[in-house]
Amino acid sequence: MICFNVAHSSAFYAGLGGVGAGVRLFALSTRQKDIAERYVTRAALGKEDRTRVEEECMVAASCTIEHTEDVQDHHIVLTKIDGVKVPEKDEEGLMPLVWQHGKLIT
Predict the structure, then answer these.
(1) Which of 55, 70, 72, 90 is the most buried (most CB within 10 A)?
(2) DSSP class of residue 25?
């Protein structure tokens, strides 16, 4: 599982406890930054986008769609990439990233 949030890890973990907007059932991989940036700039994404996002994600790399959620002005994305080892990360493959005001913070 890869969790995305760099600069604001406390906001991310607070978000998992229910702070911010509701959880949406789709996610994107770090391997598809171009796809992620397109979708994350939208003000809101609904469950109806799950299939389309998943299809586009699967074209670029095999990944399992988990979920995203908004915490204040942060858009948090969670995904699990199938068969891909994430180098130099902990054993769970956690990699934090965050989008703020529609822009990816690296």
Answers:
(1) 70
(2) S
pLDDT band at 103 (very low <50, low <70, confident <90, very high): very low
Give 1's DSSP letter: -
Instruction: In whole angstroms, give the CA distance from residue 100 to residue 25.
Output: 20
Tokens of 101: 């005001």
- Kindly tell me the burial class for residue 34, based on how many C-beta atoms sit within 10 Å of its own C-beta (0-12, 13-18, 19 or more): exposed
Write the CB contacts of 85 (distance below 8 Å, at least 6 apart in sequence). Answer: 93
Proportion of the chain in helix, strand, coil states, percent, rounded to 5: 30, 25, 45
CA–CA dist 75, 40 (Å, integer):
7
Whether 6 and 77 have beta carbons less than 8 Å apart is answered as no
Structure tokens at 88: 């130099």
With left for phi above 0 and alpha for psi between -120 and 50, is residue 47 left, alpha or beta? alpha
